[in-house]
Design goal:
Shape: globular
Strand content: 35-45%
Number of strands: 31
Strand order of the largest sheet: 11-10-9-13-18-15-16
Radius of gyration: 21 Å
Bound molecules: CU-O-CU linkage, copper (II) ion
Oligomer: single chain
Amino acid sequence: MTGHSHSHHQHHGHGHGTPASGPVEHGVSADAGVAQHRARSLAIPAPGRSVVRVELDAREVDWAFSPDRLTRAWGFNGQVPGPVLEARVGDVLEVEFTNRLPEPTSIHWHGLRIPAPMDGTDMVQHPVAPGETFTYRFRLPDAGTFWYHPHANEVSQLERGLYGALVVRADDEPQLDAERVLVLDDVKLDREGQIKPPGGWMEKHDGRQGPVRLVNGRQEPVLTMAGGQVERWRIVNASSARYVRLSLGGVPFRILGTDGGLVDQPVTVEEVLLVPGDRVDLAVGPFLPGQTIEVTSLRYDRRTIARSRNERFATVQIGAAASSRATIPSKLRDIEPLTAADTAPTREVHFGVRPSLRTVVKFVVNKQPHHRDRPVKVGELQVWELVNDTLMDHPFHLHGFFFQVLSVNGQPPAFRSWEDTVNLPPRSRVRIAWKADDRVGEWMYHCHILEHHESGMMAHFEVVS
Ligand code: C2O
Ligand code: CU
Ligand code: CU
């Protein structure tokens, strides 16, 4: 993209809008307010369900991530992570959000299939200015583990602690003995123990990965769990760039769900990869009383400059045995394939780099930073070949819609699932299929390594009827 300056905007160097073709000046459309108002009034609970009202604010907080460490952070409702929001499928979630930060922000509902005007990006709303309030209101269509985070100045806002989990339940969930939500993150501190401001060429290349590993905002916590029980762990990777190759010290566990809710049947594994933005629901246990389980991230070489190692996130101490009533059905749900695995792509999307004087490289989509992709028609099958032309991994995230992975370098995935985030290994071709339901408007996809997104490895497009 040439002849188009990105430097005069506050967010990641650009704004957005609807161009006819070629480079255009972006910007939220003039009738965005009308569209938001309309979306709010059309959000009605399903029969028998209700409106879940929540007040959220973003503000500065003294964050005690370990007993002897206090750092100045930003949190939702004064905590890191923000509160776990819980609701049921068919409920309407109404969030009155107030920005008490010194800079503009917004909330994106990662993974939710909600109307475009509520997506929280700079395509569909002006960032919420300091002191202002914005109401998000939408119906929750799917059960699963989701999360929320700003979609403005993400590189520093997420690192400072602005993120939280959102759990949506269905009536027919598998019954386990207990459930916990584990939000994973890491931070990088300066000598005074404060969050280091973002920057540096290595961080721009690798994405920021901090040595302090956090579970629910605490550094390598010790958790306790009853012996003999099976728990459901809902795990969110909220870190800027860290690939978490999750292991419980080699003990097998079962995958029950991923980004878009339950998988078709439980999958027994000894490790699972969570790229930034990813979620996974696991059935964990049963363990013996007195056992100690280490929750670690195994070495994963995503071809960064910094080297990867095995690193601990948490320790789980198994207490006295308790009775178990956990039942995990062998079939969790039906997931019909959208299309045959070898269906020819309807579009190819290239993820690449190009040299840049300022930052060594720029991360781009189809050779352009902040690319404008072709529209997508409601109901039309999309088969996208995501081509990673680079020598490092990129976590691809599609806003607002779930997709199925058809193949990774020609190989079918290990199990059937709905996803909104998928890893693109170095020099790979990942084929996905999806279909836009009737939610027209401005959407986007991007690499969820926040520094790559900021640099321009993203595209926006319109869903049209
Ligand atoms: Cu969680 Cu646009 O992202
Ligand atoms: Cu962009
Ligand atoms: Cu990337």
